[in-house]
Specification:
- There is one protein chain.
- With 271 residues, this protein is α/β, with parallel strands linked by helices.
- It is built from seven helices and seven strands, in the order βαβαβαβαβαβααβ.
- It has helices at 15-29, 60-78, 110-124, 141-157, 170-182, 214-223, 238-245; strands spanning 5-10, 33-40, 82-88, 128-131, 162-167, 206-209, 247-255.
- The chain has a seven-stranded mixed β-sheet with strand order 3-2-1-4-5-7-6, sandwiched between helices.
- Strand 1 (5-10), helix 1 (15-29) and strand 2 form a beta-alpha-beta unit.
- Helix 1 (15-29) packs across helix 6 (214-223), helix 2 packs antiparallel against helix 6 (214-223) and helix 3 (110-124) packs across helix 4 (141-157).
- The longest helix is centred in the N-terminal third of the chain and has 19 residues, at 60-78.
- It is globular, with a radius of gyration of 18 Å.
- The structure holds zinc ion.
- Zinc ion (ZN) binds next to loops.
- Zinc ion binds next to loops.
């Protein structure tokens, strides 16, 4: 039988932490092989000193280098056994100039990127693959593209036994907003915490307890120091961070093995 293997498919350096840092660390601790696939180099992130893309002094190549170094550090904290880079160019947030660049990840034909990912799936033969939902979690073009690529590669290889989308349960999202508000974070007048953020709780199939690895997850997040401005969790009070990080939730999209409707282990039915 193949070695138990988890593969997480993400868009940018730093995405591995928030929604899957707990499972990556916990399953690595259990001796499961953990493979992180990061599709882009994150060129559209902040530069040194917080320089934003499009501003003077934003050097895409230097940003990519910095972020890939941060990714290695983060992966170290999470005990990730294999980091694989697809090497695509960051498309930037929806509406940014980089959206129009033909070589941006979101504009690469899905089949082309899926062929690269399929080769990795053939090599590692993960029983469990995790990626974003069809909205990319929150609408970032690269996250949506990572979703499409992972779905296509899982389908064409037929290798993953269980396929998942990351999720933040709606109730937990509301809790986090409350805590941030209480800590003085200003969302502005028009902000409506009930506007449908997060995944409807009834769609969640799998919740994994990561409370034993919260500290490592926080360290991994802090390793992405150059992106500190845009990592909202880092602006939350520490107690709220710990609470937000203690569990990770998922939607099981497909499974070829018997597993409970509500499970606390993504490898349920596989061991
Ligand atoms: Zn991202």
């Amino acid at each position: 039988m193949d070695q138990l293997t988890l593969m997480a498919v993400h868009a940018h350096p730093d995405d591995e932490v928030l929604s899957t840092g707990g499972i990556l660390a916990r399953y690595a601790d259990e001796g499961i092989r953990t493979v992180l696939v990061t599709c882009t180099n994150g060129e559209q992130g902040d530069g040194v000193g917080g320089v934003k893309p499009g501003q003077d002094g934003h050097d895409a190549a230097a940003v990519a280098q910095q972020r890939l170094a941060e990714l290695r550090e983060s992966a170290g904290h999470l005990g990730i056994t294999h980091v694989e880079l697809l090497g695509y160019q960051d498309s930037g947030m929806d509406g940014w100039d980089a959206n129009h660049d033909a070589s941006s990840f979101a504009n690469v034909p899905v089949e082309e990127a899926a062929a690269k990912l399929s080769a990795l799936i053939e090599r590692y033969r993960p029983q469990v693959v995790v990626t974003y939902d069809e909205n990319g979690g929150y609408g970032h073009p690269d996250h949506i593209q990572a979703h499409r690529v992972a779905v296509a590669a899982a389908k064409s290889t037929g290798i993953p036994a269980k396929f998942y989308y990351t999720a933040i349960p709606r109730a937990r999202m509301r809790e986090m907003f409350e805590q941030m508000k209480a800590a003085g974070v200003d969302f502005g007048e028009d902000f409506d915490p009930d506007a449908g953020f997060g995944t409807p709780d009834e769609l969640i199939t799998s919740v994994v307890d990561g409370s034993a690895v919260v500290e490592r997850k926080l360290k991994a997040l802090r390793a992405h120091a150059s992106q500190g401005d845009s990592i909202f969790v880092l602006q939350m009070p520490e107690e709220a961070q710990r609470m937000a990080f203690s569990h990770e939730a998922f939607i099981r999209v497909s499974s070829t093995v018997e597993a409970p409707d509500h499970e606390d282990d993504l490898f349920a039915g596989l061991r």
